[in-house]
Structures are given as structure tokens and as C-alpha cells.
Amino acid sequence: MDEMDPRDRINAAIALQPVDRAPLIPMMDIFSPRFEGVKMSAMINDLDLARDTLIKGFDDLGGWDATFLAGGLVTNIGWGNFGMASKLPGYQLGDDDLWQLDEKEIMKVEDYDFVIQNGWNAYLGLAYPRVGAPCDPALFFPRLGEIAAHGVKDTLIWEAKGVSVFAGFGPNPPFESVTFTRSLKETIADVYRRPDKLEAALDAIQAEQVPFMVGGMLAVKQATKWGNKVAFIGATRAPFLSPPNFERFFWKYLKSMVDQILAAGITPMLHFDSVWDRYLEKFLELPKGQVLLELDSTTNIFKAKEILKGHMCLMGDVPASLLKLGTPEQVTAYVKKLIDVVGEGGGFILSTGCDCPIDAKPENVKAMLETGKTYNPHHKVF
Asked: What is the pTM of this model?
């Protein structure tokens, strides 16, 4: 049935142009290791094994339009923990447990002044010794450098296989960064207790991190000749803010970040977990046909389509609960609904709702993939 090259299909969907079928880019970084019998502790400590496990999962499951990340979310997030405490398989957890982020107050009130004066990277040098094992700075920072450098190698290996890498990591919105290490509870309290200090710190983070990360993405793009040039921008905490505080502490920074990333020739992919329903109309303020909004199944993706149809490409959102607890028939029906409703008129990429769960039923995963690759009612052009 396919008539388009996968890379062209993806880029056309983002640009709201016609495609032969909805592109399929599931997040399989957590599911693939257990499916292939590889321990999570091995995944986070052997970067070549991590990549090869994702490649084997891709092949054994029949493939899709692009791999989501070059080396996997496990190796990037499990260690690169945003200044949060983490629990890792083979360290605090069992060898085949999924890594966990352990939210606690690492950043103190007085650290706002340090961030304002010295920047975010300098602050992380203070934060990691407080986080505890396995985040000993003598081990942790070299590890992050190794992971970053390995991303180029992994991307080239995927591309030699004929598969493009969909996304690389971009900057976090500064409000999100602060909540990770200050904790959501304390950051929300600071919105009311010390709003000016919080805003000054966010200004400092934005001024440093966007050029730092965008420059890094450009270097990777040039080194690997990335086909899709998409930057993963994650957010999950801003919907807890009231509308005035949402604008002041989150949205103005995101809009500026999007503009700077687009100016660098990179597509912002807003990987926005949690419930964004009441703020969906805000996304109409972002440039038409140039930004991708990925949802995790807690936001109503069908409502998002009503509001953003013809303005922004949506990505998602087969729920983790369905892949774990449902039946193949239920998965197939939901995928068809996504393609029929969210895919109507174009601007849709089929994916999992955030990551495919570690313990999803293989038969459900296969139903999602098969339906996504073959279902095209009446062979219409989306």
C-alpha cells in the first residue's frame, strides 16, 4: 500500500500535507528490552547493547517509519535525570526493574540566586552531589558526555540500516527544569511565595540553555545529516498552573524556545504528558504547520484535533493501559479510531501514548503496529 518514502511521509504529516497513510513512530525503548530478553541493568550500562536491542526489536516486530531515538530513552533519561534523584536497575532496583525518578527537594531557596548569577549548568554541578548514588559527579558527568557522543554513532548505524532517527533531545522549558530538582510542590509554592525570584531564575535558565541545546542539536544534525531534524521538548507539570501563571512562568518561555529552534532549521516536538485540555487553544499561537504536539493519552486527543485541525500535527496516543490490559481487538479498534478521526484531513502521526509499557502484551503491540501500517479506509489520502 505504501507509496511514500517514510522520511517524506513524516515530514509531510508535520507540514499538514497529504500522505499515503498516517506515519507510524511508536516509542519502543522500554518495551523492546524485555521483549528481547535483555535486562534493564544491562541496557543502561552498555550503550551498544541498548542500540542493538532496539534494532532487534524493530526487526522482530516488522519495523515502522522511524526509530524514535537513536540509543533509547532508557539510556538517556535513566541517567540524565534533570537534577532529580533516581533509582536505577542494578543499583537501587532489581536488574530488570524499570528506572524511576524519585522526586524530592534537591534545589533549595538560596539556589535561585546561584542560578541567576551563574547559570543552570553550574547549578547542576551543585545538585548532583546532593542527589546521591549513582550520581557521583566523578562518574555521572563523564557518563552524560559518553551518552551524548554515542547518539551520533547510533544515528549513523540506524541510517546505514535505512532507518531514520526521528528525534533528538532539545532544551526543557525552564519551569519544567526547576520543578524536577526543586520538586513540583515547592515550585508551585514559590509561584506565590517568591514569584519574582522564580521568574528571574527562569530567565537565566532560558538565556543559557536554549543556545546551548540548540547549538548542540545543530552539531548533531550536521554530523549525521539527520533527515527529520526533530527536537524532543518534554513538559508535564505546567498544566497545574492557573492561566495567568501558566502564561508568566511557562508559555512565554516555550514560545520563545519554539521560535529559536525553528530558526535553527529544527522542528520542535512538544512531548507533553499529563492533561493539557484547558490550554489546547494556546497552541494556535505557535506557527502553523511547523510544530508537532505529542500527547500521552491523558489529554483528549480528539478534542485536540477539533481545536488544532489544519494548524498543528498531532502525535499519539495508544494508551499504555490498553497495551497492557486490553485485547488485540480493542487495540485495533482504537488505532482505527485514531486514524479515522485524528488522521482526518492530515496532520497526524500514529504512536504510543508516551512510551510503550515494559510489560505490554506482545500481541497487543503487534496489533497496533499491523493496523497502523495497513489500515487506510477506502485508500483515501490523509
From this structure: 0.94
